[in-house]
Specification:
Blueprint: H1 15-25, E1 46-52, E2 55-61, H2 78-81
Antiparallel strand pairs: 1-2
Length: about 80
Amino acid sequence: MFAKEGIVGIRRAKRRNMERLVKACGGNAVNAVDELSIDDLGFCDLLHEHTLGEDKYTFIEGCKHPTSCTLLIKGPNEHTIA
């Protein structure tokens, strides 16, 4: 039902990641659909999942009032990253 309306729900996110999502997109984190209201929904222009190596990352872009961000720095070794 949510996907038909363009609403994405993320399951089993770590607590700290949920806090970052709320800061980036607005809205509120809820644990049950029964508790969900229109005020709990946040907004972003684009949300996509990308695999880098063996890890999956969820990228959220185009937030209206972002107050949180993450910089991902990857390289083949510690020397390159430094």
